[in-house]
């Protein structure tokens, strides 16, 4: 049932504040400002040699975001791979490491094969899955569910933000256990996570503005998305969503890679969507935006009020997000990039919930 929404995807986008709240409540002891994981871990974070992550598509991009968090909070090395590459690469694994697989359906063939490879190679396998009865959940040692509820739209939306919520909680727990974040830091991070649903609600208020921006985007042949730090995986997620829904060619790039190739594409017809909260790397992204502007690129900036003030370039549109703590920015900024893809697809008249050539669950490789 789509409720009063035109598509399942839109309904699922709007469900996000609620399901992210439910998911964070499952992982956080809100009264005491601590992470409280719902399952016992069969390993000691402090003794963990390494974390590996494997997943596909949007789930992979949740994993890539988590790499930044695990490295920052827990100072642990993280390898992240696309599951179809990981499974055949015969990568050596230090026994006793942690393998995290991320999957909405829990049935993705390549992710399942990666899980089995990791198990054979002495890893503790932890699954972040949305379907608790799935094969991936059954075969993993530890299951950390996302409580997104059934996701019907082929494009993953609420499962993604719930994956981010679970992975951020895990990274905070790891950081605390390894002694790299204090009790006060943990408290601040937990409180930030608890605010995410409220900020997502605020982000949803930009829908009409985004729908008007989508009119212009629907005329583009190619769209470039740029981001730095944790905004880089969100840029890639934006590009993936736009491709799969509107069939417009899109690429997500690390902003710093611009000069190493993609800048050649930029002319007056090229929309460039820049995901840039006013964070530690904002200044660096501004200089990349200037490079785009100097070549006539059409900048659509997704930022907060401070970012909008300091942008120093002319944009065709600015989508102003609430000012959010850095850790939850990827969760909150997922909302506008989903709405951009959704409205561009509606503008193009494509089948939003069932895009051509795609299946909800990829059970063959
Ligand atoms: O069920 P999974 O999370 O394992 O699926 C992984 C990908 O197939 C999936 O995220 C796909 O990229 C989505 N269509 C993205 O919107």
Description:
With about 375 residues, this protein is α/β, with parallel strands linked by helices. It is about 45% helix and about 15% strand. It has 12 helices and 12 strands. The strands form 3 sheets. The chain has a 5-stranded parallel β-sheet with strand order 4-3-5-6-7, sandwiched between helices. It is globular, with a radius of gyration of 20 Å. Bound molecules: 5-amino-5-deoxy-1-O-phosphono-D-mannitol. 5-amino-5-deoxy-1-O-phosphono-D-mannitol binds near residues 56, 57, 59, 105 and 361.
Write the H/E string, N to C.
HEEEHEHEHEHEHHHEHEEHEHEH
Uncertain segments are none
Sheet with the most strands, sense and barrel status: 5 strands, parallel
Based on CA inertia axes, which overall geometry fits? globular
Order of adjacent strands in the largest pleated sheet:
4-3-5-6-7
**What is the percentage of strand-forming residues?**
15-25%
Ligand species:
5-amino-5-deoxy-1-O-phosphono-D-mannitol
Instruction: Write down the overall mean pLDDT.
Output: 96
Q: What's the number of helices?
A: 12
Q: Helices and strands: which structural class?
A: alpha/beta
Please estimate the helix content. 40-55%
* First and last CA, distance: 31 Å
Count of distinct strands: 12
The radius of gyration over CA amounts to 20 Å
């Amino acid at each position: 049932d789509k409720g009063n929404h035109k598509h399942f995807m839109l309904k699922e986008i709007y469900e996000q504040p609620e399901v992210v709240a439910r998911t964070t409540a499952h992982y956080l002891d809100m009264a005491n400002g601590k992470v409280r994981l719902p399952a016992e871990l069969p390993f000691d974070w402090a003794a963990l040699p390494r974390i590996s992550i494997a997943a596909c598509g949007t789930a992979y991009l949740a994993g890539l975001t988590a790499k930044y968090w695990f490295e920052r909070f827990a100072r642990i090395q993280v390898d992240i791979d696309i599951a179809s590459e990981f499974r055949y690469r015969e990568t050596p694994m230090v026994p006793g490491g942690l393998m995290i697989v991320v999957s909405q359906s829990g049935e993705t063939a390549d992710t399942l094969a990666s899980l089995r490879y990791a198990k054979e190679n002495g890893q503790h396998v932890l699954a972040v899955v949305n379907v608790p009865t799935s094969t991936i959940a059954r075969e993993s040692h530890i299951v950390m569910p996302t409580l997104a509820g059934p996701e019907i739209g082929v494009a993953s939306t609420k499962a993604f933000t719930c994956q981010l919520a679970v992975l951020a909680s895990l990274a905070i727990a790891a950081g605390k256990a390894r002694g790299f974040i204090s009790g006060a830091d943990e408290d601040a991070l937990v409180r930030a996570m608890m605010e995410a649903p409220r900020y997502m609600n605020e982000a949803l208020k930009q829908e009409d503005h985004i729908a008007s921006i989508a009119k212009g985007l629907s005329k583009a042949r190619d769209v470039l998305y740029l981001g730095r730090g944790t905004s880089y995986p969100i840029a890639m997620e934006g590009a993936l969503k736009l491709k799969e829904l509107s069939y417009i060619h899109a690429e997500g790039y690390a902003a710093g890679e611009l000069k190493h190739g993609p800048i050649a594409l930029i002319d007056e017809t090229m929309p460039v969507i820049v995901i840039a909260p006013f964070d530690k790397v904002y200044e660096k992204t501004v200089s990349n935006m200037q490079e785009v502007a100097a070549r006539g690129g059409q900048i659509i900036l997704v930022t907060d009020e401070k970012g909008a003030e300091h942008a120093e370039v002319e944009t065709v549109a600015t989508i102003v997000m609430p000012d959010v703590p850095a850790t939850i920015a990827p969760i909150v900024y997922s909302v506008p990039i989903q709405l951009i893809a959704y409205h561009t697809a509606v503008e193009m008249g494509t089948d939003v919930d069932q895009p051509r050539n795609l299946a909800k669950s990829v059970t063959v490789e």
